[in-house]
Write a structure and sequence with these properties.
Length: 339
C-alpha cells in the first residue's frame, strides 16, 4: 500500500554554545531516519528519553527544519507533497492535514483562553468557519471527545488531566486532519484515565478515518494501540516491525531491553530478565562509533565497534544489527521462538 507519509534519510543536528564564548557543540538528534506510515495505520515510535522520537514528530510537522533528508506527504486525491521543501507559507494548508497532540495538556492549552476559543483557534487561523458555524463545529468536536457543550465557556484549570487531554484532542481534530501525531499523549495521565483516552483515540480513528503516529516510551501502551512499532536509539531507527512480531520475536538487543521494562508477574523470570540490562544511555554529544548500541549490547563484537549496521530486512522486520539472524532474544512473553 502507498504510504500516507514517508520519512527518508532524515537527519537533524542541533548546534549550541555552552556560555557566550564556549566551544560550538553539535548534537545529532536524528541520524538517517527512514520510516513510513500507511493510511489507517497506527505506527508507534518508541525509545528512551533523548532517542529522537519527539524531534522526529516536530520535524514531520515542520516545527523545525531538518538538516538532511525529506518528508513526503501523499494526501488522498492529490500529488505527493515534499513537506521538507516547503516554506512556512506553503506549509500552512498541510498543517490542517497533519496535527499534533502533546503530552502535557496543561502546558499545551493556554490557561487564559476559554475551551471554546482553544478549540476554535485553528479554525480561525485557517479561516474555515465563523459565527454560528464556528460554534457548531467546536461544540460538535467537543461532544465527540466527551466534553459537553455547556463546558465550552470554562478555562482549562476547571478540568481534570484526562478532560484537558480530551480538549487537546478536540483541538487537533477540529480541522478534520488525515494524520495525527500523538507525542506521549497519555504519559501524564493516571493508568485508568490512560485507558479511557486510548479507547477514545481508537474510536476517533475509525470515525474520522485517521492515521496515527504514536510517540511513546511506554511499550504497554504501544502494545495496546499500535499496528507497527519503530524502535529508536540515539537518533537511529534500530528496529521496525509489526507489533505482534516485535513483542514475540524482537530482533534487536535494544528492543529486548525495552521489553524487559514491561511489568511481569513471575519474580523469578523478572530476576533472569534483569541480568540482560547493561549500562546507561550515552551522552548524545559523544556518540559511540560503529553500532550506536555497542556500549550496552551483551552481544557486541569487534566489528560492532567500528562498522555501523544498516537497517535491513530480516523476516517481516527491519533491523539494524550485524547478527540479527542468529541472536536469540527474549520476547515479552518469554524466550524467543526458534527462527
Ligand atoms: Fe549489538 Fe553488534 Fe548488533 Fe549492535 S550490531 S546491536 S552491538 S550485536
Amino acid at each position: 500500500m502507498t504510504a500516507l507519509l514517508s520519512v527518508e534519510n532524515v537527519s537533524k543536528t542541533f548546534s549550541f554554545r555552552s556560555g557566550w564564548f564556549g566551544p560550538l557543540t553539535t548534537l545529532d538528534a536524528l541520524c538517517d531516519v527512514t520510516l513510513s506510515v500507511a493510511p489507517g495505520e497506527t505506527l508507534a515510535v518508541v525509545g528512551e528519553s533523548g532517542c529522537g522520537k519527539t524531534t522526529l514528530g516536530r520535524s514531520i510537522v515542520r516545527a523545525q527544519p531538518v538538516t538532511a533528508g525529506k518528508v513526503t506527504y501523499r494526501p488522498p486525491g492529490h500529488d505527493p507533497v515534499e513537506l521538507t521543501a516547503l516554506d512556512k507559507r506553503a506549509m500552512k494548508p498541510w498543517r490542517r492535514d497533519i496535527r499534533m497532540i502533546f503530552q502535557d495538556p496543561m502546558s499545551s492549552l493556554n490557561p487564559h483562553m476559554r475551551v471554546f476559543d482553544i478549540v476554535a483557534e485553528p479554525l480561525r487561523i485557517h479561516r474555515l468557519a465563523r459565527g454560528q458555524e464556528l460554534e457548531e463545529r467546536v461544540a460538535g468536536v467537543l461532544e465527540k471527545v466527551g466534553i459537553p457543550r455547556d463546558a465550552m465557556g470554562r478555562y482549562p484549570h476547571a478540568f481534570s488531566g484526562g478532560q484537558r487531554q480530551r480538549i487537546g484532542i478536540a483541538r487537533a481534530l477540529v480541522l478534520d486532519p488525515k494524520l495525527v501525531i500523538a507525542d506521549e499523549a497519555v504519559s501524564a495521565l493516571d493508568v485508568s484515565i490512560q485507558a479511557q483516552v486510548l479507547n477514545l483515540l481508537e474510536d476517533l480513528k475509525d470515525e474520522f478515518g485517521l492515521t496515527y503516529i504514536f510517540i511513546s516510551h511506554d511499550l504497554g501502551v504501544v502494545n495496546y494501540i499500535a499496528d507497527r512499532v519503530v524502535v529508536m536509539y540515539l537518533g537511529h531507527v534500530v528496529e521496525n516491525a509489526p507489533t505482534e512480531a516485535l513483542f514475540e520475536r524482537p530482533r534487536h538487543p535494544y528492543t529486548e531491553i525495552l521489553l524487559e521494562a514491561l511489568p511481569i508477574a513471575d519474580p523469578a523470570r523478572r530476576m533472569r530478565r534483569a541480568k540482560t540490562v547493561r549500562g546507561e544511555i550515552p551522552y548524545l554529544g559523544s556518540r559511540p562509533t560503529g553500532c550506536p548500541f555497542h556500549t550496552r549490547c551483551r552481544f557486541a563484537e569487534d566489528r560492532c565497534r567500528t562498522e555501523k549496521p544498516a537497517l535491513r530486512k530480516v523476516g517481516e522486520t527491519e533491523v539494524a544489527c550485524h547478527f540479527a539472524e542468529t541472536l536469540e532474544l527474549k520476547g515479552a512473553y518469554g524466550d524467543a521462538p526458534a527462527t
